[in-house]
Structures are given as C-alpha cells and as structure tokens.
Specification:
alpha/beta
C-alpha cells in the first residue's frame, strides 16, 4: 500500500488534491481512498488530507500516521506543523517552494526531498496560485504512484474547458520538472 499525506491551508485545494489522486489511481486500475481532516473550516487554516493506493481493497479508515509520501502545499507550515511526522524511512517529501532543499534546511531528513515551484507553475498555466494539481504532477513524476495519463484523466473528470486544460498543463510541467531533477540527481550520483 502506498500512503500519501497532503498538508496545506484552506483554499489551496488540499482535499481536491487527495480526491484527484484517488481518481487517478482508480484510472490506473488500483484501489484507492481519499479523505480530509481539518479543524476550523476557514480560509488559511491548516488542512491535511490523505490518500491510500493499493492493488487490493483498502479496509483501513484511520488517518495516515506513517506516510510513504508527504506533500506540503504551503511551505510556511514547515515551522508550525509536524508535516514530516511518521514519514517512512527513505520516503518522499515534496514541497511547494522556489527554494532548494538546502535553503529550507531539510538536508537532515531521511527521505527523498524535492522542491517544486508549484504555485508559480499554477499561476502560469491556470492563472491562479493554487498549487494542488501541479504538486500531483510532481508527485506522479517523483514516485510513480499514479501515471501522468491517469492524472490527466482525473483532471478532465473534475474540471471542464480552460480549467481542465490549464490544470493538465500545470501537472505536465511539474511532472517534467521533477523527472528531470530526479534524472539529473541520478546522473550526478
């Protein structure tokens, strides 16, 4: 089972991201579940959502305490919320930031940490600073938990017209950015 925990703030599409990821997993032929957890329902409040992906029926229903991947949609949460709590050894951490992993002070994590400027990518392709779909494209490129084609299918089911096309382009751009970064890091090693 592959478990993803997505952290962000209200209004950034955290819940939508988990739902899209589960729909993409279904499109790839996997089983999936997605659900949110939040206290105060207001714009800007910390929000967390979860997604599980497996090739068998998923019977667990509790929040994900030990994720294989963590997605951080808002880097201001890094100093205020334990976003990396329980992250599996050698798991994945994907952070929406224009800063490097070193600049964020995250080199000590025992995880594969990657940053991607998802908000900038979203502004460019959808005209709004909502990083969720770009981060899903990056997650697909980093982990292979879902295919880019399945993610595009999920986007097409959720959005219509220009919103669908812009979000698909944002996912593609982030996917390519991360796969190039991962390939470059592998070549350097």
């Amino acid at each position: 089972m592959f478990q993803v925990r997505i952290h962000g703030r209200g209004g950034q599409g955290v819940v939508t991201a988990a739902e899209l990821l589960s729909v993409a997993a279904f499109a790839d032929g996997s089983e999936a579940q997605a659900f949110p957890s939040f206290g105060s329902e207001r714009m800007g409040a910390p929000v967390v959502a979860f997604c599980r992906i497996d090739d068998r029926k998923i019977r667990l229903r509790e929040p994900i305490a030990e994720p294989d991947a963590v997605v951080v949609q808002d880097p201001t949460l890094l100093g205020h919320v334990d976003v990396f709590g329980g992250l599996a050894n050698a798991g994945y951490a994907l952070i929406n930031s224009t800063k490097s992993v070193e600049d964020l002070g995250l080199l000590e994590l025992d995880a594969r940490v990657v940053t991607v400027p998802a908000t900038d990518i979203a502004r460019e392709h959808i005209g709004r600073p909502i990083p969720n779909v770009a981060l899903l494209g990056a997650l697909a490129g980093l982990t292979g938990c879902v295919s880019l084609a399945a993610l595009e299918e999920a986007i097409g089911q959720r959005f219509r017209g220009a919103a669908a096309e812009g979000n698909k382009k944002a996912a593609q751009a982030a996917f390519l950015s991360v796969t190039r970064e991962v390939q470059h890091a592998g070549d350097a090693a």
